[in-house]
Structures are given as structure tokens and as C-alpha cells.
Amino acid sequence: MDYEYDVVIIGGGVVGCATLFILSQDGYKCLLVEKNPEILSEASSGNSGMLHTGFDAPINSKELHCIKLCQDEIFPLLDKWKVPDKRTGAIMVAWNEQQIRSRTYFYMRFFSQRRKLADIQKSSEDKGVVGDMYQLSASQVYEREPNLNQGVQGGIWIPNETVLDPWLFPVCMVQHSLHRNSKVKTDCKVTGITPEYNRTTVHTQHGAITCRVVVNCAGLYGDQIDNLVNCQTFSIKPRKGQYLVYGQNTSGLINSSILPVPTDKTKGIIVFKSVYNNVIVGPTAEDIPSRQVPPEADGIIRSKLYSATGSTVPCLSSYSNIGEYTGLRPATQYKDYQITTFPERNWISVGGIRSTGLSGCLGIGKYVRDEIREKLSLEPTFGPSSTIETLDWSFSQNHTVKFADSTEYKFVHPITTFGHQTHSSRL
Ligand SMILES: Cc1cc2nc3c(=O)[nH]c(=O)nc-3n(C[C@H](O)[C@H](O)[C@H](O)COP(=O)(O)OP(=O)(O)OC[C@H]3O[C@@H](n4cnc5c(N)ncnc54)[C@H](O)[C@@H]3O)c2cc1C
């Protein structure tokens, strides 16, 4: 072997971390390189922390395939590593139209919304999505969620929707991989690539690294990294999402995640409880030109969020939010995940994981592993392991998690950070 690593993974977001975990378990000697000082500090630091079941992913898509694979694997890992999670379930709520003028139009809208719910339920059955989704009448919705605004027309109960600590889980995947001969380098930006026959040199700001295969998990920069080897097949079109966060004293106001009926572009603004019992309202969806994750919230969007709060759970409006956060989805011109293997370049591109990267991450890792075996014919340096080790960790006062071997990671996800503050939010 005239290379240092079997696989170099570019990007320490949730997708790169899961790929590292799956490949390390299989015995591949891996290095993950991340340009920022902390892993998980870009798109993966701005998500909602929800494990979606894939009910609204397109049929026959890679997204649906990966989410289903992930659902099979993730819960034993969460248990083993004691990562906080809660199966809260979700209700997709159909609301009436406040400004409908004609009665005929009203009935058309009413039945078309009902039909839309039935279509969503039917299509999720066709997709084989786990869990028994079923329709609820308006009164059944109010039985489950008495604080919802007036005007509910009906809903769908989605029992398996789960919330978790969206930062700690990928951190645990990385930590586990370190015990399996893998390494992580942060503050290590990839600046160039030289593919050769059966070997690739990855140039970074801290020197060159050689490997057999490169997996590009660079999220918001995925297209630019693909371009380094002339393999660009998509363009990143960043889509911002913004949230309001309420104190844990609001957690009794809802029991499950309240979803609107989704559109083609977005799942819509959700009112949900984080795994640490903060009620959160968001995310929005705005296409923006910049790839920099905007730390600042936008005032106009904030008003839209307050309005969504009042129109979904009116009594939440009598609390002031304790904070807000934003995230940036690595969307592309395509709806589906963009995972492509270029055998002649020793290259796998994993891009466009825009809205469900947490829910599909282990499936994505497995998909990549199969591509490495089948299309790149690379055997792992070490033997595989089916054992999952327990991980001994504790949260510290200064917003870090510390593992038994003293490795420490700084919180970068607002759900984890807000979850460890003790603000109350009564007006
Ligand atoms: C508002 C919002 C809500 C969401 N809600 C959910 C949800 O509830 N459930 C769910 O499943 N998913 C959700 N998602 C989607 C999920 O967060 C994304 O799919 C996921 O974060 C994408 O991960 P990634 O690893 O592809 O990208 P990233 O997290 O951006 O990781 C890519 C990494 O590559 C690094 N990188 C880039 N260029 C280089 C370079 N040259 N050298 C080295 N490193 C580099 C970056 O620094 C970054 O850390 C949401 C996303 C957003 C933004």
C-alpha cells in the first residue's frame, strides 16, 4: 500500500461523521478532515433535531432509501450511548382557510386538504415507511393537543417521529470511530486534490495526505470540492432556516410535534419540543446567496415566526422567546440526495443532503460503504467489528461534553446549548 489511509472524508458534518463511523466499523482506516476548529459547526449546527420517518421523501429516492436504513440502525446506538431522545410523535394538522370567499370554493379547499392528507398517508404506506400513521378527526386532534388554535380540520398522527440531541449523537459516532483506528483533523481545510492511479493526494493547509478513496461530505461547499477533481454534478443553493426558542416552562403546551401540510419546497414551520423540553418554532425556508451560516436572525422572518406561533398554539404567545437560531441547508437544484461515485477519480461525492441529513446519516454511510466495496473494490485494512462499545461521557458546566479518555467537544448546536440553560420565558 502506498497510501496512508484507505479513505479520507472531507467534512465533519453529520454526514461525514456517520460515514466515518460506518467505514470504521467495517475496518477501513479513515481520516476525517474538517476546515473549522469544531466539527458539526455548519449545516449540522442549525437543524431541528428531529428524526423524520421519511413519509414525505419522494418514492424510490436515495433519500427515502437512506432514511429507512438509518431507522433500522439508529435507536440501538442512541440507547447504547445514552444519547437523549424522545419518541414524541407528530401530528400533521390541516387548518381551515380564514379568507375563503365562496362556499363552493370553501368545500373544494376543504375536501382537497382532506384528500391531501389521505394522499400523504397512502403514499407513506406505499413507501413502506415504518409506523402506523392514521388520520385524526378535528376532535381527535384537539384531544391530543388541546392548546392548538381553533380551526383544525383534521390531521394525521405520525407516531414514530422522534427528537434527539442532534449534536451529541454525531459526536458519539466520531468518538467511537477514534477507538477503531480512525482519526480526525480539525482546522484542516482541503485546498486541492491530485487523483492518480489507485491513489489520491489530498492537499490541505497543513500538508498533503495520501489515500485510496476520497468521500466528499463538504455540505455547503460540496460543489466547489467536487470541482477540484472536475466531478461537479450539482450546484449548492443555500436555503436558510430560522427558529424561535422558548424556555422549558412552555413544554406542557404541546405533547407532540405540530407539522403543517408540507409543500414541495419545505416541510413548513413546525412547533415542536426539543429533547430538552424547549418549545421551538421553525424552521423557515429562504433561498439566500451566501454560504456562510448567518448567525443573525432576520427581523421580517422573526415576525413570520411570531405569527406562526400565535396561529398554531396561541397561548405560547404569552411567553417571550429566550432565543433564536438559524441554519443553512445545502440544497441543490435537485430534490433528492446527490450521491455519485467516480471510480476513475477514486472519488465519491455525497451532496445535497438538505433537510434530512440527521435522519438519513447512517443510511448514507452504508450507501457509501457499498459503493466503496462494489465500485471501487477497496478492501478494508483492518477486520470488521460488529461490536458497539459503550461511551462514558458527561456534560460539563462550560458547555462541553467530556469522554472518559478526556477528549472534549464544545457545544455548537443551539438545541444542546439552550437545553442546558435554565431560562424561563414567561412574559
Ligand atoms: C434549518 C434546518 C433544519 C433541519 N432540520 C433537520 C431535521 O430536523 N432532521 C434532519 O434529519 N435533518 C435536518 N436538517 C438537515 C441536516 O441538518 C443536513 O442535512 C445536514 O446538516 C447536512 O450535513 P452535511 O454533513 O452534509 O453538511 P455540513 O454539516 O455543512 O458539514 C459539511 C462540513 O464540511 C466542512 N468543509 C467544507 N469545505 C471544506 C474543506 N474545503 N475542507 C475541510 N472541510 C470542509 C464544513 O466546514 C462542514 O463542517 C436541517 C437542516 C437545516 C439547515
Automatic annotation (TrEMBL):
<dbReference type="InterPro" id="IPR052745">
    <property type="entry name" value="G3P_Oxidase/Oxidoreductase"/>
</dbReference>
<feature type="domain" description="FAD dependent oxidoreductase">
    <location>
        <begin position="6"/>
        <end position="370"/>
    </location>
</feature>
<protein>
    <recommendedName>
        <fullName>FAD dependent oxidoreductase domain-containing protein</fullName>
    </recommendedName>
</protein>
<dbReference type="Pfam" id="PF01266">
    <property type="entry name" value="DAO"/>
</dbReference>
<dbReference type="InterPro" id="IPR006076">
    <property type="entry name" value="FAD-dep_OxRdtase"/>
</dbReference>
<dbReference type="InterPro" id="IPR036188">
    <property type="entry name" value="FAD/NAD-bd_sf"/>
</dbReference>
